[in-house]
Write a structure and sequence with these properties.
It contains five helices and four strands, in the order ααβααβαββ. The two termini are 31 Å apart. Helix 2 packs antiparallel against helix 5 and helix 3 packs antiparallel against helix 4. It has 198 residues and is an alpha+beta fold. The model has no long low-confidence stretch (mean pLDDT 97). It binds flavin mononucleotide.
């Protein structure tokens, strides 16, 4: 087993933060970092090696395509449902442009259904955490968002997903424009753990 600097590993995990698009500088993140994030995503644990994570990376003009697709889908579905809000539409049409890259997060269901769906979702979440940690290690901001069209069935095809698959949200990525790396909060781990020793 290789030796790691465990102090650094602990610090990376504990100081990883969600950095939101309004905190980005507008500069582009080097594709080489995005590629490292994706490579590390691919090393997430996976029961029966189903490797269910699928990603679509949007950058440049691609971000405009995503913005157009998601705002128009929202408009179509919300007009039908009578819930349309102009401000939501405008947010969906403009917000993607604040990010350098947006990685759509998909779960591809194993055709043999060799493991329960919840395990596939868990594996994708582990892959996303690998991307979060990699971004933090490079001083790059990212944040997993599940708003907008994420859980709309009609959205899946645009991201190359089929009817048994799931879109699990978007990892927004950008260079942070911050004076201080943000803090977060957690309740004590002791409240969430039971030890059985005898
Ligand atoms: C599955 C998942 C979905 C999330 N969706 C959203 C979201 O839609 N909007 C949002 O503001 N944050 C979202 N977050 C990010 C959380 O708000 C964030 O992780 C939390 O505030 C803790 O901050 P930290 O990541 O900096 O520790 C999501 C996180 C996870 C794990």
């Amino acid at each position: 087993m290789k030796e790691f600097n465990t102090d650094e590993v602990n610090r990376l995990i504990r100081e990883r933060r969600s950095i939101y698009p309004k905190m980005y500088s507008g500069e582009e993140v080097d594709d080489a970092i995005i590629i490292q994030m994706l490579e590390n995503a691919n090393w997430a644990p996976t029961h029966r090696f189903t490797e269910p994570w699928r990603f679509v990376v949007f950058k440049g003009e691609g971000l405009k395509k995503l913005a157009k697709f998601q705002s128009e889908l929202y408009k179509e579905l919300s007009l039908e449902a009578g819930t349309f809000e102009q401000t939501k539409f405008e947010k969906l049409a403009t917000k993607p442009l604040l990010s350098s890259h947006i990685i759509a997060i998909g779960m591809k269901r194993d055709p043999n259904e060799s493991v329960p769906e919840v395990e596939e979702v868990a594996a994708v979440a582990a892959a996303v955490q690998n991307m979060y940690l990699t971004a933090s290690a490079y001083g790059i901001g990212c944040y997993w968002g599940t708003g907008g069209i994420t859980f709309k069935e009609e959205a899946r095809e645009f991201f190359g997903l089929g009817s048994q698959d799931k879109l699990l949200g978007f990892l927004n990525v950008g260079k942070p424009n911050l004076e201080k790396w943000p803090k977060s909060r957690r309740g004590p781990i002791a409240d969430k753990v039971t030890w059985v020793e005898d």
